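Field guide to reading this record: the first block holds the primary sequence, the second block holds the structure written as discrete tokens, and the final block holds curator observations. Each block starts with its own label. This record concerns nitrile hydratase, catalogued under organism Saccharopolyspora phatthalungensis.

BLOCK 1 — SEQUENCE
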Amino acid sequence: MDQITRSDGYTQPPPYVALRIKAIQSLLVEKGLVAQDALDEVVDIYENRIGPKDGAAVIARAWVEPEFKARLLEDGIGTLAELGMTGFEGAHVLFVENTDQVHNVVVCTLCSCYPWAVLGLPPAWYKAPQYRSRVVLEPRKVLAEFGTTVPSEKEIRVWDSTAEIRYIVIPQRPSGTEGLSVDQLAELVNRDSMIGTRFATPYEGAAA
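BLOCK 2 — STRUCTURE
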């Protein structure tokens, strides 16, 4: 799984798509069609001002407010809009919930469709051909390579994102967190748990 989970780029050149994007970006800037400052602003927005912490806050609230979670499951994009989270470029956002019977994982087999407005930039492995192809064919094995062991009796559902529909996983709430605040719970919601490749972070203060 190193080829999926690692993206340091020390031994491999950037993917062809990344090189192509960089070349187009350079040409646009060189010809004066796009300002470098504008590009930097867009990158800064998605790297620093929008990110997994926004999604984590939504998930944590869903853990403590059943009515809010029901609204997310019924009308994800409408509920997010109430929170000021917009900019999905016309796509719908569908929340899927992990339970004792079902584990959900998200992929985009065609490219890298992703709920940027909630989770920020996608991880490099999410765009990797290895992940996009293998998680559909052998999801249990791929998840195990991420360190996520899903019991054999639990169903795994793979959701294929498109330009029209983006998915966000509501991970199961860690045990022993009944007394935590929403802010404390949000700290346990890691990015990958909202994609489904990992579980939410266990609470260290939980009783053994």
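BLOCK 3 — OBSERVATIONS
The chain has two domains: 16-47, 51-195.
DSSP finds twelve helices and four strands in the chain.
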